[in-house]
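Standup notes
- DV: blocked on the single-chain target, sequence here:
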Amino acid sequence: MSRKLPLAGGEIVRTACARGVLRTGVEEKTGELLSAAVLAERVGWAADLVSGMVAVLLAEHWNAADVDVLAAGEDTGGRPLPSNAWMALRRLGWTVGPAGGIRVNDRIVRIAQEAAGRTLRAAKWRADLTAGVLATWPADPARRTPKEWDRVREAVRARSSPPRPRPAGRIGPRPDPPGSRQHAPRPGDAGHPPPSGPRVRRASVRRDTLTRTGPGCLVRPTGTRA
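- DV (later): unblocked, structure below
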């Protein structure tokens, strides 16, 4: 079952984030309160762990062949790759794990795979754009004509891969099945004109617990949900 919000005409999805100050944490096993300094140290440890896994993935797949495979949007069996980067990497078998025998929640590995996958997908776009600009370099780049700009766009499109999966977060209207609760008339339907400008429906962000066994384990900051 999809958890994506059904959208009416004129609606789009955006994910919003807000800053929060973590002043203390709690040790889940013992209930011990931890200071802000200890909490910052443990969060920093988790960030370094993720950065290390991202670096490993990028080092293994930072080449034209792998970047093209990911950008093509299909796995070896011809099935479309998921829009989520971490899911696409797992479908291709591009896995990673923490070094030193450390055991972490699978969500930590997903964070690393998502960061690496987005970087690899962006690399393809940047490479195509750069190649298109260089292939159509004008005699006077300071005074490029409209026709010269058109040649740049054509060159970029010619180098682009086949259509890629839609990004996470559906943009545009999605029809609801007849009889569903969302099938009632809404703004954008016939006789119900949409308001001026796009309506934004906030997407919720789940905050998860980071855990690690043994000394220096990660904790759940107080005031958050597991």
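- Follow-up: Confidence is low (pLDDT under 50) at residues 161-188, 197-226.
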